[in-house]
Every structure is written in C-alpha cells, then in structure tokens.
Amino acid sequence: MSATKTIIFSDLDGTLLDHYSYQSTPANQTLQQLSKANIPVILNSSKTLAELVIIRAELKLNTPFIIENGAAVYIPINTFITQPADTELIGNYWVKSFCLPRQHWLKLLNEHSKKFQPYFHGFSTLSAAALCKITGLDLAQAERAKQRHYSEPVKWLGDKSTKESFIEHLVALGASIVQGGRFIHVGGYCDKGQALIWLTQQYREYFSRHTVYTIALGDGENDTPMLEAADIAVQIRSPVHDFPPLYRQYKTSQTQLYGPEGWAEAIQQLLAKQLGSQAT
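Request: output the structure for the sequence above.
Response:
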C-alpha cells in the first residue's frame, strides 16, 4: 500500500483570514503544525501576486500559490526537481497561466461596456484611498490589491436587474464573471478548481509513490469550483452570507465557527492523527 500525501488548498478572505480584521491568529498554531508535518498549504485566492507574496511571508509559507481566482499558479523554483511543462520562468517562480492578461478585460470594460459605466467602479479607476474605504485595507495593502495581472474586479453600484444585464453583456463578449465577497471579478475562463486540478497533478507526478489527496477550504461563491474539485471540501462559515450551494454530497462539511477559527477546527478534525504526532 502506498503512503498518502495530503495537500491543502485554502481561500484567504473569510477563510484563513478573518472577514473583518484580515488576521489569521486563530489558525497560526495549526499552520505551524502543518509545516512540521510537511503538509503543504496552497493559498488559492482572488488576491494578486503582490498581495500573496506579503501574506505568504507573514504566514511563513514557502509553497506554491494561486492568484486571481485561478488565473495563474506560481511555483517556487525549488518545489519540484524539474520545471513543469507549459510553465514559464518569471523571477523565482515557474508560472502556469490560464487566461488572457488584464489589459484585455479592461478594454472590454472601457470600450465595449460604456452604457454600464455609471453603475460600477473598477479597481483601475479607484484610488488606493477609495479602495481602503470599501475593503478596510490599509493604504499599502490597497496599493498591492490594485496590482492585478489577469482580471479586473469591479464594485457594483446599480440595481440587481442591471447587474444581471451587465454580466450577460460581458459573458457575450467572452468574459467569465466571478462574484466574490465584495466585488465582481471580470476575467478569462479560469477558476480555482482548474488551478487546483493542474497543480495537484504536478504533485502526483512528483510524489509518484504516494497517494495524493486534497483538502479545500473556502467560504465564498468563487471557492465553489475549488471545493467541487478537491477530495475533501470544507465550507467555512461566514458572518456576512450563507453557505453557497455545492453540487457534491460526499466528503463535505461546514464549520460552526467563523473564518480562521473554523479553518483550524476543520483541519484539526481532519488531520488529528498527523498533527497529533507533531505535538511538542
């Protein structure tokens, strides 16, 4: 029987980070235990490269990570023995991109969606100060959030019916629309699940003598593809919305606690044996 290798894929806002404070404190001890147990934690977020570089350092993670709702996977070049096929070397990362760059989607919004422009503000038009007011981020965090490579989040200002027309319009132009916790994300046809599947395959090739299985944790609608694709799905309770519906009915759980408290609770329950052996 082959040994098993667990890979954890995690959303950030509202999941590993508190929805209001953006802090991970209740989960920090569990993150340390996972590190000691050599269980990779892969951040799979709507956040940008600039944001995730900082957050990974704060969380003491050196694992691959996925940016902008699955638009690209960034793999530190020492993760695997050889560079995965169909990736490019950018800085200290092997990068797998899944969709067109941000400029393409900005053109759709600026040149082909003029009738809707009174009803939304895109990140490209928002000042860092304005973004701070919407999100609660500090100025430096807001500046990093604006540095997008593959998508354009927009803050919707209109009514629901106009929003539906806006989304239909963009989809007809070839865009994929993902509803996040605060913003509508306009980009290509990629998602967190597609990125999870691709990166998991790289781990399966690397750990060829192991049975690799995945745990995904998330709270929002944009986490649904990731949760559907993983071997085990954990929905984290949110203080601002209900659990999004899932198609799958197996190996799925919902936490009682919110955000990072729920995250830590779920991981401890799922991996009690592995983490217990790391206790000091």
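The chain has two domains: 3-98+191-276, 102-187.
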